[in-house]
Amino acid sequence: MGYIVLIPAYKPSEKLVELIDELNADNIRTLVVNDGSSSEYDAIFDKVRERGIEVVVHDVNMGKGMALKTGIERISKMDDVDGIVTADADGQHLEKDIIRIMDSMRKHPDSLILGVRQFAKSNVPFRSRLGNWVTKCLFFLVARLRISDTQTGLRGLPRSIFGHLIELEGSRYEYEMSMLLSVRHWGVSIVQVPIETVYIDGNKGSSFNTFKDTFAIAKQLLKFSVSSLISTLVDYGIYMALGFIFPQLAYAARFIPARVASATCNYLLNRLVVFKKGTASSVFKYILLAACVMLVSALCVNCLEHLGLGSFLSKVLIDAPMFFVNYYFQKEFVFKKK
Q1: Cβ(147)–Cβ(139) under 8 Å?
Q2: In the chain, which residues have pLDDT < 50?
Q3: Which residues contact 87 (CB under 8 A, 6 or more apart)?
Q4: 3-state secondary structure of 323
Q5: Which of 9, 102, 249, 251 has the most CB atoms around it within 10 Å of its CB?
Q6: Under 8 Å CB-to-CB from 134, ≥6 apart: which residues?
Q7: 147-162 core/surface letters (b: 16 or more CB in 10 A; e: else)
Q8: 208 Cβ partners below 8 Å, 6+ apart?
Q9: Which of 338, 300, 304, 306 is nearest to 322 (CA)?
Q10: How big is the CA angle at 173 (ends 170 and 177), to the nearest 5 degrees?
Q11: pTM beyond cutoff 0.85
């Protein structure tokens, strides 16, 4: 039993061949996926084949995520493989770091291993440093996991999650982020291993896009925000409509149906669109959470008002953090799968 290196390659340079030679020298098995590179790169892949390495070919470019899934599916049929180390074809991942990931996999056979770069070093381009900082902070907010390098492509994948990885959504660079966002739900821990920080020509060849990667993390949070906004509009809309149609109607007679309709709308949107999961008890958990949030918000606003702050400012100061508290408990308590 052992490990195999999986390299997705799109328009690779001679650096791919150099890495293959280094891996072959240490008898490390490798599989390369040609992700639809044009014919001018055939010579590179021919050199890879001449070194005894299997090359799986996509007829057209399908994205890094799909290339990884193609490789994982191919390797999953090899009974003598315990895990996969994914590495890039551009020379940013050194052979010694690939071996370091394999060593960590032997110590933690059921964990996802991440080779994390040191972004504080002076050779790291500002764009990469900024992108990592943004995604790292946002990732912690959404996933409650502290990962120092969310963008790393050097990873150790245990055999136990091959099935999850093949079915995981995403075909391009968002696939790797989806992997990190999903790993907790698979019951798999993450181990981070420091690796050499290598950038080729200031990282000009990188296909990483800070906006796209950030959006991949924040997508669920954005949908949660839209759901909250829609529910608020339903609340105010029904409240105002009842007041317009029935001017003599008591406050409670307008407030209660408006709030019930708003809460029902919010629950359905969050269960069906935002989190897309839940159990039979989710509705009861939602009601309990809503009552707790309402009580805590009211108490905190009241305290701020007694300290001399206006009612509007007090509500804004409390509602902002309570939004994230509400999101966290809906994700981890109300709509969490068993």
Answers
A1: yes
A2: 202-208
A3: 5, 6, 7, 19, 93, 98, 153, 154
A4: helix
A5: 9
A6: 210, 214
A7: bebbbbbbbbbbbbbb
A8: 128, 131, 151, 173
A9: 300
A10: 75
A11: no
Task: Give the E-state strand segments of the chain in sequence order.
Answer: 2-9, 29-35, 54-58, 81-86, 112-116, 155-158, 190-194
Structure token digits, residue 108: 């933690």
Which two three-digit tokens encode residue 88?
């890039």
Phi and psi of 193, rounded to 5°? Answer: -120, 120
Q: How many residues are listed for the chain in this entry?
A: 338
Q: What secondary structure does DSSP assign to 64-130, as a single string? A: HHHHHHHHHHHHHT-TTEEEEEE--SSS-S-HHHHHHHHHHHHHSTTSEEEEE--TTSTTS-HHHHH
Residue with tokens 């690939």: 98
Which amino acid is it at 206?
A: S
Distance CA 59, CA 94 (A): 28
Rounded Cα distance between 54 and 33, Å, is 8
Q: What are 127-185's pLDDT values in tens digits?
A: 666 666 777 777 776 667 788 888 888 999 999 999 999 998 877 777 888 888 888 77
